[in-house]
From TrEMBL:
Keyword annotations of the record: Amino-acid biosynthesis, Arginine biosynthesis, Cytoplasm, Lyase
Pfam families xref list: ASL_C2, Lyase_1
NCBIfam families, per database record: argH
Organism listed in the record: Rhizobium rhizogenes (Agrobacterium rhizogenes)
CDD domains for the chain: Argininosuccinate_lyase (cd01359)
Main location: cytoplasm
UniProt record, GO biological process: L-arginine biosynthetic process via ornithine
Name recorded for this polypeptide: Argininosuccinate lyase
Source species taxonomy: Bacteria, Pseudomonadati, Pseudomonadota, Alphaproteobacteria, Hyphomicrobiales
Compartment annotation: Cytoplasm
Gene expressing this chain: argH
Annotated Argininosuccinate lyase C-terminal domain residues: 373-442
Length: 466
């Protein structure tokens, strides 16, 4: 035809009631083989389990089952060797594999699709894929947490300024700051583990949406495929994509954590802050400004968050108006998940490398920790503890001391005892013990506080769980 449409042959898998084949545009919008070929291993594994179950229940013969398994093994090696020819006419991975099976083993291939539909088949393949991806993510988060635990241990005593509003607030330790990220990525990993538990039910056997009259054994296929049990409602089974949404929402939260860390790395590595130096392996130079060392890896980790969040919104939007059960809209689930999985893996790996390699500039952190009146709260606390002032009054007196230091252009610890006594007569020499950043940090021994002794306890707790 003039528009390039091949309407001569109808689809060989479902074309029975169609007189002509799809138009070229129809084929293009309908086909998913371009991306769902990624599911080939899961599809073959699922078909093998299904065929074995059919044979053991006497639904197909053992000879047919053996031929099917052998043919599927051949297909697996063809795909892995790169010799398999994927065809867009055959729409998706399921039909590409089944059509090839028919070429290889003849009529027995047609018995494989007994008591199943592509609806439960795709739900199975995709679940298996997401489950494996979650397991991989769990391992990668464990490696990232381990990198942070090492840095935290080395820097349990390294004083740095703690910030609120990105203004110097109170001194903390770099070890404590690292452990904040251990908490975040620890929660991400817990979410990953929950998601694995949630999705650990086998969809195969739900068939198109209503189940099947064949005497299948869904517990058998569930077990063979490593699932805890089969799903309990065939309608929900083929219309549910919660496992994909859960993956994307976990990925979005994790990417958000990675992005906040990336932002800190960008700030800390500026000459103005100078808290860290990135390794050459995780930075780049400028083609025009020879002095520059750019934190490109951190910037790209920060940017990947946009894509991952976008995928979550995209799939939520695809799903939000769908009536039960399966609709072809759901074919749009895979690219979002595949793209996010790739981005998240890369972001976690890059961040793990950066954290492992970065050089901590303790002198710069220490100098910054001492400026900006970061021990003002310690002065106020001293007035409460040693001079019996109510906290509000102590806050006011401290404010006067800060104003004086600001006027003189010095730090609180540089004010003389006379100057401090002029502000409040009860101040004694003991005040200088708390005005140092080391004393300030060491005093914060409350559970979860920044004192090196407390940080070491938290490191030990996490080491026992990583
Ligand atoms: N390629 C489809 C998908 O990814 C497979 C399921 C198609 N089912 C159907 N009844 N058309 O969703």
């Amino acid at each position: 035809m003039a528009d390039g449409t091949d309407q001569k042959s109808s689809n060989q898998m479902w074309g029975g009631r169609f007189a002509s084949g799809p138009s070229a545009i129809m084929e293009e919008i309908n086909a998913s083989i371009g991306f769902d070929k990624k599911l080939y291993a899961q599809d073959i594994r699922g078909s093998m389990a299904h065929a074995s179950m059919l044979a053991s229940k006497g639904i197909i013969s053992t000879e047919d089952k053996d031929k099917i398994i052998e043919g599927l093994n051949t297909i697996l090696s063809e795909i892995e060797a790169g010799t398999f020819e994927f065809s867009r006419k055959l729409e998706d991975i399921h039909m590409n594999i089944e059509a090839r099976l028919a070429t290889l083993i003849g009529t027995a291939a047609g018995r494989l699709h007994t008591a199943r539909s592509r609806n439960d088949q795709v739900a199975l393949d995709f679940r298996l894929w997401v489950k494996e991806e979650l397991q991989k993510t769990e391992g990668m988060l464990t490696a990232l947490i381990a990198a942070f635990l090492d840095r935290a241990e080395e820097n349990a005593d390294t004083v740095m300024p703690g910030f609120t509003h990105l203004q110097t607030a109170q001194p903390v330790t770099f070890g404590h700051h690292c452990m904040a990220y251990v908490e975040m990525f620890g929660r991400d990993r817990a979410r990953v583990r929950h998601a694995i538990e949630h999705l650990d039910e086998s969809p195969i056997g739900a068939a198109a949406l209503a189940g099947t009259g064949y005497p299948i054994d869904r517990h058998m296929t569930a077990k063979a495929l490593g699932f805890r049990e089969p799903t309990r409602n065939s309608i929900d089974t083929v219309s549910d994509r919660d496992f994909a949404l859960e993956f994307l929402s976990i990925a979005s939260i994790c990417a958000t954590h990675l992005s906040r860390l990336a932002e800190e790395i960008v700030i800390w590595s500026t000459p103005q802050f100078g808290f860290i130096r990135l390794s050459d392996a995780f930075s780049t130079g400028s083609s025009i400004m020879p002095q520059k060392k750019n934190p490109d890896a951190a910037e790209l980790v920060r940017a990947k968050t946009g894509r991952i969040n976008g995928s979550l919104v995209a799939l939520l939007t695809v799903m939000k108006g769908l009536p039960l059960a399966y609709s072809k809209d759901m074919q749009e689930d895979k690219e979002q998940v595949f793209d996010s999985a790739e981005s998240l893996e890369l972001a976690i790996a890059a961040m793990t490398g950066m954290i492992r390699d970065l050089e901590v500039r303790k002198d710069r952190m220490r100098a910054a920790a001492g400026s900006g009146y970061s021990t003002a709260t310690d002065l106020a606390d001293w007035l409460v503890r040693e001079a019996g002032l109510p906290f509000r009054d102590a806050h006011h007196v401290t404010g006067n001391a800060v104003a004086l230091a600001e006027k003189k252009g010095c730090d609180l610890a540089d004010l003389s005892l006379e100057e401090l006594q002029a502000i409040h007569p009860d101040i004694t020499n003991g005040i200088f013990d708390v005005l140092s950043v080391e004393a300030s940090v060491a005093s914060r021994t409350s559970f979860g506080g920044t004192a090196p002794s407390e940080v070491r306890k938290q490191i030990a707790w996490w080491r026992g769980r990583n």
